[in-house]
Structure formats: structure tokens, C-alpha cells
Specification:
The structure is a single chain. By secondary structure, the chain is an alpha/beta fold. It has two domains: 211 residues, Rossmann fold; 167 residues, Glycogen Phosphorylase B (Rossmann fold). It has 15 helices and 14 strands. An eight-stranded mixed β-sheet has the order 1-4-3-2-5-6-7-8, sandwiched between helices. Strands 11-10-9-12-13-14 form a six-stranded parallel β-sheet, with helices on both faces. Helix 1 links the parallel strand 2 and strand 3. The longest helix has 19 residues. The radius of gyration is 22 Å and the shape is elongated. This is Glycosyltransferase family 4 protein.
Length: 409
């Protein structure tokens, strides 16, 4: 086990000291949101502890954000146990006023670190999805979350999945920063007679990319359909290789106007070059950073009709929605934009005008207020582990029995 840290700069403002704990400095959505949060919170006396190193560590340090890294090795789940002594020692050394776990994995370790200050979790995952992951995962969830004194959820949807067994735990909703920088859009909607449609999701079935392929097939059956091009961006270590091969085979066999690009780094440039961005998730997205990013870039967003992504869109005003899991409904939404470029222009303009509501500085300020609110509510409260949930009785927060079928059906 190795350990390295960067001391707190003396120029950083003093105030309530917050230590954030994440399992790895990898460029995932949660880690990037934490980076953008702290970059836009110069008044916050913050320190980040990573259980393992990763390529994002340099960006945190370049931004002047104090960090500690417990091991230089790539993350594996055994670290949730083996890193506990080092994590407890580092948390104690930082003398925090509150400690926040920013990932599910980090929450599992932090739950067993002795603390005399509020222990909070920034919840960025639908807890109902814990079902179907095996007994070990359920045992962890039912013993981990009773240890926390407060929960900040990244959307109202995410907050709605918190089990009623934790109803007495203080909670708040704070949307994560998305680096949704407003850039100058030069392309007009449907310029050149082709509407450019894009997705920015890793290839997994629950992300619903096959619904976009289905919708394209439906549109291509009508020879009067205006021209369109679909570009699918996304890949990386966490992806379903078989699902990706199936998508590619269907696109090639059907000679569809779809291109699969895999992972890209220049997301902003691709957004600016897209007329429409589709978020076709079968299961509700806890938040969906690409929605805020696309609106700021002037692309029209089409989202499935549940989850945190829908909280960012007013259908018919600054975007569109479709019935979750329905390729025909998605095709109808796309066709409305293909047939009426003026509708696309109107929705694009409204999205750009609304982008200020999702600016990183605005969301960072809201997160800080939520953090202060929960810390104030937990001040002086006894630090004791709540009784673990019953291991037989199912969580009453599960919204429906169709979670597994939505993934595998």
C-alpha cells in the first residue's frame, strides 16, 4: 500500500472543511462532476481522498485541488477492505467537519471508518438497481447505508429511490455540474439538408442504443423521410462487447445511416456539430450530464420519459421526450424534427437560453447549500449506526418489478 498527498494550499479560503472520498481517479461521470464541482467552489475548504490513482488525478492537482491517494495500483474491489486502515488514518489526519462519499464503492469503505463528524453520501445511482446483483451486494447495501447521517441525491429521481427505511435520514437534491460550457454555435439546424443525430452513451443494453437503431430502421422504410445521419459516440472499459458487436452487425446488414465511433475526447466539438442528441435509456438515468451539455451546445435533446434526464427538459419547449423503451415513439419524435426544421431551431434556441440554469457555478453553489443544510441538521446528532435493514423483506422503495426485465428483456 502506497500513500501520497498534496498539502492544502495556504491561499485556499478557510471555512467548513469537507473531505470527499472516491474509489478511483478515473474519468467517469461522478469523478468529473466532482472535479467540476470543486473547480467552481473556490470558497470551499475541500480535500479529496482517492482509494486508487488514475489519469484524472493530474487534472485535480492542476486545478489546485488538494488530494490524497492511498495506492498507485488500479482499483479493484478488494481495496474496499484492504484500504480501510489507510483510509481511516487519512480521514483522521484531514480533521474534517464532514466527510462525503462520492461513489457507491467509496460509500462501502467509508461506512466502516470511525467518525465523530457527519458522514454523508452523494448518491448518483438508482438504488433500486441493487436488486438482481446478488446477495452479497444486497447485504452491503443494507448494512452500509444505515451508517450515513445524510444523503445528497443528484436528482429528484435518485432521491425517490432511497428506501423508506432511511426516511429519517436528512436528504437534499443537488444536480451535479456537467461542464456545460455555452459555446458559439455556427451550424444551423439541418444545415446542408441533413439532420445530424448523435448519442453519447457507452454500449450497454440498458442505455437503449438499439432503440435508436430500431427507430432508424422504421424511418428508412418511408422513402419520403428527410435525410438524417446518426453518430454513436461512447466506449471505454465498461461496455458490453457482445451488445456492441450486435449493434454493428445490424447497422452494416441494414445499410443504415449510422456510424459507431467508440470513445472520443472532443465531446464539445461533436455536440456543436450535432443537431439532435438522443438519450434513449431503457432505465431512468439518475441524472444524465450529456443533456445539460447538449442544450448548452444548441443541440435538441430527446430523452426517455423518466429519470433525472427528464428533469432537465420541458418537452415541447426546450427538448422532446418519448415513451421509455419504445422505438416507434422515438422514431415519431425524430420524424417531427426531420419534417419541421423550424421546430428544431425553436427548441435549440430555447435550450441555449435555458443553459444558464445548468451552469457549473450555479450547480456548485446549490450543492454547497445542500451540504451546509445537511451538516446543520446533523450537528449534535448522535453518531451511531442505525439498525440494518431486514435482509428478507424487500425494500419498499423499489418502484416496480420490471427492473431486471428492462435490462434483459
Amino acid at each position: 500500500m502506497t500513500h501520497s498527498s498534496v498539502p492544502v494550499p495556504s491561499s485556499r479560503p478557510h471555512g467548513r472543511r469537507i473531505v470527499f472520498v472516491d474509489h478511483a481517479a478515473t474519468p467517469g461521470g461522478g469523478q468529473l462532476a466532482l472535479l467540476w464541482l470543486l473547480e467552481n467552489s473556490p470558497h470551499l475548504d475541500a480535500h479529496v481522498i482517492f482509494l486508487s490513482a488514475g489519469p484524472l488525478l493530474a487534472r485535480f492537482r492542476e486545478a489546485g485541488i488538494p488530494t490524497s491517494v492511498l495506492t498507485s495500483r488500479p482499483f479493484d474491489r478488494r481495496m474496499l477492505v484492504t484500504a480501510l486502515p489507510a483510509l481511516a488514518a487519512e480521514v483522521a489526519r484531514q480533521r474534517a467537519d464532514a466527510v462525503v462519499a462520492t461513489s457507491i464503492a467509496a460509500a462501502k469503505s467509508l461506512a466502516f471508518v470511525p467518525l465523530r463528524v457527519p458522514r454523508l453520501v452523494y448518491l448518483q445511482e438508482d438504488l433500486a438497481r441493487a436488486f438482481g446483483r446478488g446477495l452479497t451486494t444486497q447485504l452491503m447495501f443494507r448494512t452500509v447505508y444505515p451508517a450515513y447521517d445524510g444523503i445528497i441525491a443528484n436528482s429528484r429521481w435518485t432521491a425517490s429511490t432511497i428506501p423508506v427505511e432511511l426516511s429519517e435520514v436528512p436528504r437534499a437534491v443537488a444536480y451535479p455540474p456537467s461542464n456545460a460550457i455555452r459555446l458559439r454555435r455556427l451550424r444551423r439546424f439541418g444545415e446542408g439538408g441533413v439532420v445530424r443525430v448523435a448519442t453519447f452513451s457507452r454500449p450497454e443494453r440498458w442505455k437503449g442504443l438499439d432503440l435508436v437503431v430500431d427507430a432508424a430502421e422504421l424511418l428508412m422504410r418511408d422513402r419520403s423521410c428527410p435525410r438524417f445521419q446518426v453518430d454513436m459516440f461512447g466506449g471505454g472499459a465498461v461496455m458490453d462487447e457482445r451488445y456492441t458487436r450486435d449493434l454493428r452487425h445490424r447497422v452494416e446488414a441494414g445499410r443504415l445511416p449510422i456510424r459507431l465511433h467508440g470513445h472520443i475526447d472532443d465531446v464539445a466539438a461533436r455536440l456543436l456539430d450535432s443537431d439532435v442528441v438522443v438519450v434513449p435509456s431503457r432505465l431512468p438515468e439518475p441524472f444524465g450530464q450529456v443533456v445539460a451539455q447538449a442544450k448548452a451546445a444548441g443541440a435538441v435533446v430527446i430523452v426517455s420519459d423518466a429519470g433525472g434526464a427528464l428533469e432537465q427538459v420541458t418537452p415541447g419547449f426546450d427538448g422532446l421526450s418519448f415513451a421509455r423503451g419504445s422505438a416507434s415513439a422515438l422514431a415519431d419524435s425524430l420524424r417531427s424534427l426531420l419534417d419541421d426544421p423550424r421546430l428544431g431551431t425553436r427548441l435549440s434556441d430555447a435550450g441555449i437560453a435555458e443553459a444558464h440554469r445548468w451552469g457549473d457555478d450555479v450547480l456548485a453553489a446549490r450543492f454547497t447549500r445542500a451540504l451546509d443544510e445537511i451538516c446543520d441538521r446533523t450537528r449534535g446528532a448522535p453518531r451511531k449506526r442505525r439498525r440494518a435493514f431486514g435482509l428478507i423483506r424487500p425494500w419498499r422503495s423499489v418502484r416496480a418489478g420490471s427492473v431486471k426485465s428492462a435490462i434483459t428483456g
